[in-house]
């Protein structure tokens, strides 16, 4: 493996790790209506689990409400079941053609629990990124065509990439915490 290939691989993997963390936090309820809250809920669509966003359009008619309009009305019952099974804590209201979800305001205790969950996810992301650094450093050590200077330089660059990724995770934690704690 060449130096540039290792560094490009490291950048891609670190970026992917941060993106995964951001995706995980998008689905956490913050008291606001957001399609990210439900778009990845799996709906049994003709026998196969399909993300909700692929079987229905999701819109926000009001700040605390979501409107789900299935592309095929016959799947409305399955969407309702999937939302009730999910752990978002919102009961859907159906009128036969569309479904409404009213996002209730969260109590202070619920908000604090949710902030704790965000911090847990962030720590898991940091551990994952550090494990990635370890694996990349091992790959650098195992690369026979790299000079000693290249090995040192590659490890320093990987460390910089890790610090940058951890900073991004921290910034996302701060933003999500602020969003959750807003009343």
Residues in β-strands, percent: 5-15%
**Count of DSSP strands:** 6
Quote the average pLDDT: 88
Radius of gyration: 21 Å
What is the highest CATH level, the class of the largest domain? Mainly Alpha
What's the N-to-C terminus distance?
A: 52 Å
Q: Which spans of ≥5 residues are poorly predicted at pLDDT below 50?
A: none
Outline the biggest β-sheet: 4 strands, antiparallel
**Content-based structural category:** alpha+beta
How many distinct domains?
2
Spatial order of strands in the largest sheet: 3-4-6-5
Q: What is the element string, with H for helices and E for strands?
A: HEEEEHEEHH
Task: Give the CA-based shape.
Answer: elongated
- Based on the coordinates given, report the CATH architecture of the largest domain: Orthogonal Bundle
Can you give the helix content as a percent range?
55-70%
CATH topology of the largest domain: Topoisomerase I, Chain A, domain 4
Number of helices: 4
Explain what this protein looks like in three dimensions:
The protein has four helices and six strands; from the N terminus they run H-E-E-E-E-H-E-E-H-H. A hairpin with a 2-residue loop joins strand 3 and strand 4 (65-70). A four-stranded antiparallel sheet has the order 3-4-6-5, covered by helices on one side. It starts with a helix and ends with a helix. The protein has two domains: 3-27 and 107-181, Topoisomerase I, Chain A, domain 4, CATH 1.10.132; 35-102, Gyrase A, domain 2 (2-Layer Sandwich), CATH 3.30.1360.40. The protein is 56% helix and 15% strand. It has 183 residues and is α+β, with helices and mostly antiparallel strands. Helix 1 (3-26) runs antiparallel to helix 3, helix 1 packs parallel to helix 4 (148-181) and helix 3 packs antiparallel against helix 4 (148-181).
């Amino acid at each position: 493996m060449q130096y540039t290939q290792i560094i490009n691989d490291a950048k891609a993997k670190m970026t992917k790790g941060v993106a995964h963390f951001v995706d995980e936090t998008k689905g956490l309820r913050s008291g606001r209506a957001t399609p990210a809250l439900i778009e990845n809920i799996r709906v049994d669509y003709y026998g196969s689990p399909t993300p909700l966003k692929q079987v229905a359009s999701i819109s926000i008619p009001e700040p605390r409400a979501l409107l789900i309009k299935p592309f095929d009305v016959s799947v409305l019952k399955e969407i309702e079941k999937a939302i009730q099974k999910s752990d978002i804590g919102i009961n859907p209201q159906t009128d036969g053609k569309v479904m409404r979800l009213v996002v209730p305001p969260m109590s202070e205790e619920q908000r604090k629990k949710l902030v704790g969950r965000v911090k847990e996810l962030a720590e898991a992301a940091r551990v994952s990124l550090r494990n990635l650094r370890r694996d990349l450093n091992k790959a650098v050590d195992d690369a026979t065509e790299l000079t000693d200077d290249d090995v040192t330089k590659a490890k320093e660059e990987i460390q910089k990439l890790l610090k940058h990724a951890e900073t991004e995770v921290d910034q996302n934690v701060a933003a999500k915490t602020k969003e959750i704690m807003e009343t």
